[in-house]
């Protein structure tokens, strides 16, 4: 299929070239046929909707005939076929083409379209998708075909498949990496959109490896099981950032994929907010595993595990029977994928063993020790199970949970832990185990998504799809929400920089008259969090006053053991008092408010320092590194990547040597440190565990976070971006429900109005004079030796193009999209005429040649026949002569015989003299 996009002459292709593919020509006709296809049957009753008076509307109309909706014709369009739909919607399906462009009209158009299940709308090249919260039937095979090579964006209704097709074509045409940035609030539909992007990409191109497409699509539910969870905003919320990179070879065939994971919300493993759940996989396990398997992993009663209970739900794991059934179904799907894609039976068993260990370690409870300052373990039960599951020494585990090693005056000092420290470190083990397991799963999955045979091929391009957790504003917002929201600020900043600032800078640089458009800039807020790192846009020469920033203050505070969460907030308030977007809250020493680009969010700094330190005690690490299980040993010995993930570690991780579950530790009891141990512990001295560097400075969570952002931004900057903006129509996750207020807020902060203005006023297509000529020379009358601005202008004017459709800069031609489409189609038309002419000429020459050959053949046949006839005649004559000679000879012989009696008879009297001809024939014969 990728041959469709093969270039005219790929060997001559360079980065600057913009060749038109042969197959573009070939598929033009195909698309025309699709455009004329009848539209899907659709009832369009006048939609009646209930309003709650607060701007929330629930639609009752526009129901599809057969349960699912189809891509409908818009009201007012000449319904009947997609082409008509596209034409009638020209003013609507691209917001930048609207006559009356303002916030109200944009909101109205989106709402009208949503009412009719038309959820996708363009603003220039940016696609807006409103989450329908219901299954819509316009993502199937028919739509894959329809949006496979679309000549003109406006030919068909807006669709995410167009964005994908466009990215793929851009990549094959320009050999530049592409990135599709999908943004929006939590629950707006980013993950669903990401899946559709991958699905369409796997549809429009071939892969170099069998099953690759299938695998890429299939691994998604597996990653969701481990990385997604139910939140109040979204029942399937991604709790990690995902950058899916699809790699292609020079012919546009997909040769592999890589999933980059970022910022897994590992704190969820140990704490869930009200009305939320832990990671899906725990629920899937309890719903789907047979009872004896559950028993094997010591998992009998789900509600015995602290981390599966929330404040509002202490009794039931599943809401109801259908919830349990769904989780069971998901478990079966997950197991099937694990088996098919990347995991052996032992791997799967190891995964469950780790999950069981997470469930048990978080069940360990401490209480203050009576006769010393430390803590004691309430019940040995869970600790014994953990030691069994992870094959580590049970006594050492207990000691490590109750005591910690710190460095004082360059000496390692083992001390008893306080209650808070013991709880934090217990949770740190669970978080580390879960996040490292997740990283390993991602690594395993990635290893199966690469075509090793073509991995070494040098030429390659990629299309990346970014799906970060969306902006969050819960009742309780903590460190995780802060990181997620800062990542979204950064993404918004990239968007602003690309769409607005860069755009304006380019026009200024090229000397093109451009009316300045104001946009909501979030530079200041990023500086508040990250300082003056890379926030200044390339064109901007403003110098900013250097402000202390939140993350450096957080890191400084995290270094000192004396600081507390409230001292952190005090420090922020004192040092950030000038920052407009930060406010402390009087009366609550832990609360602070940030005015984000999307909304004002109140955070609680409770546990911020501990979460940022993210420290796992050295003695616990050392113990885990000594596990009898190679897998656990390696899991905790592996170096994390710069971004804090294990998936990209270079360290080797060996397979499990079996989980050794021997049910040996089922006895209950009370864990305590013996008097001897306490005596030793109170003594200062060197007690360094072998193989562990206790002095190594640990990277904080915020440092990993900053590295992750840097890496992501690097990826964005080296590619051509395309944007998909997901919009949430209501907060109740309900179908057919629209909140004006909510949507308007999202439109405002995402700068939709400004994008529409830029798309309308600006020139979205631009190319250097050389590329312009290379691409369109075919349709221009005159050939120019040296492409220049004047030559391009002359050529466009000569072709009858009006001035407002283009602008000539210092090095580039700037064009409106419709002009670019027009030129492209004209070139395609001309190319197809030339091609047809060439083909016809070729065919005619072949026919003529064949005819000539036929005539020659016939001539040769005739001559041959004549020659044969002559030969045959000569042969006949020869035979006749021979026969005559023989007869003559026989007569003579007879005469001789008779002459014996008639001696006197004069010789030769009766002889017939031989003819001249017979003599010559006889000579020839002899
Ligand atoms: N195009 C769509 N068609 C039908 N339903 C959709 C679509 N997009 C999203 N949804 C519904 O909305 C839910 C939330 O979408 P999704 O998980 O993609 O949100 P998100 O933006 O990725 O959220 P988060 O940031 O929390 O991960 C989905 O589970 C699905 O039910």
UniProtKB/TrEMBL annotation:
<keyword id="KW-0677">Repeat</keyword>
<protein>
    <recommendedName>
        <fullName>Myosin motor domain-containing protein</fullName>
    </recommendedName>
</protein>
<keyword id="KW-0067">ATP-binding</keyword>
<dbReference type="GO" id="GO:0004674">
    <property type="term" value="F:protein serine/threonine kinase activity"/>
</dbReference>
<feature type="compositionally biased region" description="Basic and acidic residues">
    <location>
        <begin position="853"/>
        <end position="895"/>
    </location>
</feature>
<keyword id="KW-0547">Nucleotide-binding</keyword>
<dbReference type="GO" id="GO:0003779">
    <property type="term" value="F:actin binding"/>
</dbReference>
<feature type="binding site">
    <location>
        <begin position="184"/>
        <end position="191"/>
    </location>
    <ligand>
        <name>ATP</name>
    </ligand>
</feature>
<keyword id="KW-0009">Actin-binding</keyword>
<dbReference type="InterPro" id="IPR001609">
    <property type="entry name" value="Myosin_head_motor_dom-like"/>
</dbReference>
<dbReference type="InterPro" id="IPR052409">
    <property type="entry name" value="Myosin-III_kinase_activity"/>
</dbReference>
<feature type="compositionally biased region" description="Acidic residues">
    <location>
        <begin position="40"/>
        <end position="51"/>
    </location>
</feature>
<keyword id="KW-0963">Cytoplasm</keyword>
<dbReference type="GO" id="GO:0000146">
    <property type="term" value="F:microfilament motor activity"/>
</dbReference>
<dbReference type="GO" id="GO:0042995">
    <property type="term" value="C:cell projection"/>
</dbReference>
<keyword id="KW-0518">Myosin</keyword>
<feature type="domain" description="Myosin motor">
    <location>
        <begin position="90"/>
        <end position="828"/>
    </location>
</feature>
<feature type="region of interest" description="Disordered">
    <location>
        <begin position="33"/>
        <end position="56"/>
    </location>
</feature>
<dbReference type="GO" id="GO:0030832">
    <property type="term" value="P:regulation of actin filament length"/>
</dbReference>
<dbReference type="InterPro" id="IPR027417">
    <property type="entry name" value="P-loop_NTPase"/>
</dbReference>
<comment type="similarity">
    <text>Belongs to the TRAFAC class myosin-kinesin ATPase superfamily. Myosin family.</text>
</comment>
<dbReference type="InterPro" id="IPR036961">
    <property type="entry name" value="Kinesin_motor_dom_sf"/>
</dbReference>
<keyword id="KW-0505">Motor protein</keyword>
<keyword id="KW-0206">Cytoskeleton</keyword>
<dbReference type="Pfam" id="PF00063">
    <property type="entry name" value="Myosin_head"/>
</dbReference>
<feature type="region of interest" description="Disordered">
    <location>
        <begin position="657"/>
        <end position="676"/>
    </location>
</feature>
<dbReference type="GO" id="GO:0005524">
    <property type="term" value="F:ATP binding"/>
</dbReference>
<feature type="compositionally biased region" description="Polar residues">
    <location>
        <begin position="915"/>
        <end position="926"/>
    </location>
</feature>
<feature type="region of interest" description="Actin-binding">
    <location>
        <begin position="709"/>
        <end position="731"/>
    </location>
</feature>
<dbReference type="GO" id="GO:0016459">
    <property type="term" value="C:myosin complex"/>
</dbReference>
<feature type="region of interest" description="Disordered">
    <location>
        <begin position="853"/>
        <end position="926"/>
    </location>
</feature>
<keyword id="KW-0966">Cell projection</keyword>
């Amino acid at each position: 299929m990728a041959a469709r996009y093969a270039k005219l002459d790929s060997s001559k292709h360079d980065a600057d070239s913009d060749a038109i593919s042969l197959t573009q020509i070939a598929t033009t006709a195909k698309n025309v046929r699709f455009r004329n296809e009848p539209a899907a049957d659709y009832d369009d009753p006048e939609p009646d909707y209930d309003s709650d008076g607060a701007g929330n509307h629930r639609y009752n109309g526009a129901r599809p005939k057969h349960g699912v909706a189809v891509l409908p014709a818009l009201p007012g369009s000449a319904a009947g076929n997609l082409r008509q739909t596209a034409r009638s919607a020209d003013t609507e399906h691209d917001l930048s083409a609207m006559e009356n462009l303002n916030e109200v009209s944009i909101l109205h158009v989106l709402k009208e379209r949503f009412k009719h299940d038309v959820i996708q709308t363009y603003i220039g090249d940016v696609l807006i998708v409103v989450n329908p919260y219901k299954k819509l039937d316009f993502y199937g095979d028919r739509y894959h075909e329809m949006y496979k090579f679309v000549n003109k964006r406006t030919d068909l209704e807006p669709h995410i498949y167009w964005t994908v097709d466009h990215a793929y074509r851009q990549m094959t045409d320009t050999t530049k990496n592409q990135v599709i940035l999908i943004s929006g609030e939590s629950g707006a539909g980013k993950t669903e959109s990401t899946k559709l992007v991958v699905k369409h990409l796997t549809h429009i191109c071939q892969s170099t490896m069998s099953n690759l497409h299938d695998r890429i699509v299939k691994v998604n539910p597996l990653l969701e099981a481990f990385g997604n969870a139910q939140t109040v905003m979204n029942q399937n919320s991604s709790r990690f950032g995902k950058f899916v990179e699809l790699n292609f070879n020079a012919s546009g065939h997909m040769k592999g994929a890589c999933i980059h994971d970022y910022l897994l919300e590992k704190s969820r493993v140990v704490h869930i907010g009200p009305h939320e759940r832990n990671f899906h996989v725990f629920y899937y396990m309890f719903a789907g595993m047979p009872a004896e398997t559950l028993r094997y992993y010591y998992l009998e009663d789900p509600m015995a595990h602290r981390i599966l209970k929330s404040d509002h739900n202490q009794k039931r794991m599943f809401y109801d029977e259908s919830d349990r059934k769904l989780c069971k179904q998901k478990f079966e799907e997950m197991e099937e994928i694990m088996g098919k894609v990347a995991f052996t039976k032992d791997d799967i068993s190891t995964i469950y063993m780790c999950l069981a260990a997470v469930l048990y370690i978080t069940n360990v409870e401490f209480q203050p020790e009576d006769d010393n300052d430390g803590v004691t373990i309430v019940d040995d039960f869970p600790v014994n199970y953990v030691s069994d599951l992870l094959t580590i020494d049970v006594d050492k585990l207990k000691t490590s949970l109750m005591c910690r090693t710190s460095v004082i005056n360059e000496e390692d000092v083992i001390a008893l832990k306080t209650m808070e420290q013991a709880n934090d470190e217990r949770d740190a083990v669970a978080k580390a185990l879960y996040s490292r397991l997740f990283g390993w799963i991602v690594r395993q999955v990635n290893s199966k998504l690469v075509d090793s045979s073509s991995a070494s091929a040098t030429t390659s391009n990629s299309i990346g799809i970014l799906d970060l957790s969306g902006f969050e504003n819960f009742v309780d917002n903590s460190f995780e929400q802060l990181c997620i929201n800062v990542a979204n600020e950064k993404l918004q900043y990239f968007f602003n920089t690309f769409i607005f600032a860069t755009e304006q800078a380019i026009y200024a640089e090229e000397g093109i008259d451009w009316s300045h458009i104001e946009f909501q800039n979030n530079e200041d807020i990023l500086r508040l969090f990250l300082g003056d790192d890379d926030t200044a846009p390339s064109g901007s020469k403003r110098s900013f006053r250097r402000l202390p920033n939140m993350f450096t203050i957080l890191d400084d505070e995290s270094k000192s053991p004396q600081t507390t969460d409230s001292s952190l907030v005090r420090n922020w308030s004192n040092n950030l008092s000038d920052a407009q977007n930060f406010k402390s809250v009087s009366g609550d020493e832990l609360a602070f408010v940030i005015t984000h680009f999307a909304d004002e969010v109140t955070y609680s700094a409770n546990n911020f320092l501990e979460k940022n330190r993210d420290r796992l005690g050295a003695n616990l690490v050392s113990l885990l590194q000594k596990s009898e299980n190679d897998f656990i040993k390696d899991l905790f010995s592996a170096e994390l990547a710069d971004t804090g993930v294990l998936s990209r570690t270079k360290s080797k991780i060996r397979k499990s040597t079996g989980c050794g579950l021997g049910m040996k530790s089922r006895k209950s009891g009370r864990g305590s440190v013996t008097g001897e141990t306490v005596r030793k512990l109170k003594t200062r001295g060197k007690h360094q565990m072998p193989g562990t560097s206790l002095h190594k400075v640990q990277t904080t969570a915020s440092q990993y976070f900053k590295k992750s952002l840097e890496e992501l931004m690097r990826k964005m900057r080296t590619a051509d971006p395309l944007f998909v903006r997901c919009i949430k129509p209501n907060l109740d996750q309900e179908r057919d429900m629209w909140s004006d207020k909510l949507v308007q807020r999202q439109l405002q902060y995402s700068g939709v109005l400004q994008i529409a203005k830029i798309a309308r006023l600006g020139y979205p297509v631009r190319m250097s004079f050389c590329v312009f000529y290379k691409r369109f020379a075919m349709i221009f009358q005159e050939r120019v030796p040296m492409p220049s601005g004047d030559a391009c202008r002359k050529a466009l004017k000569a072709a009858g193009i009006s001035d407002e459709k283009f602008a000539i800069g210092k090095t580039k031609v700037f064009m409106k999209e419709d002009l670019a489409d027009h030129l492209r189609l004209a070139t395609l038309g001309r190319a197809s005429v030339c091609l047809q002419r060439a083909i016809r000429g070729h065919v005619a020459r072949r026919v003529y040649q064949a005819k000539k050959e036929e005539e020659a053949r016939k001539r040769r046949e005739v001559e041959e026949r004549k020659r044969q006839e002559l030969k045959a005649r000569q042969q006949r004559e020869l035979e006749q002569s021979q026969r005559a000679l023989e007869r003559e000879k026989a007569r003579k012989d007879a005469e001789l015989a008779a002459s014996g009696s008639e001696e006197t008879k004069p010789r030769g009297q009766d002889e017939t003299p031989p003819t001249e001809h017979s003599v010559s024939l006889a000579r020839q014969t002899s």
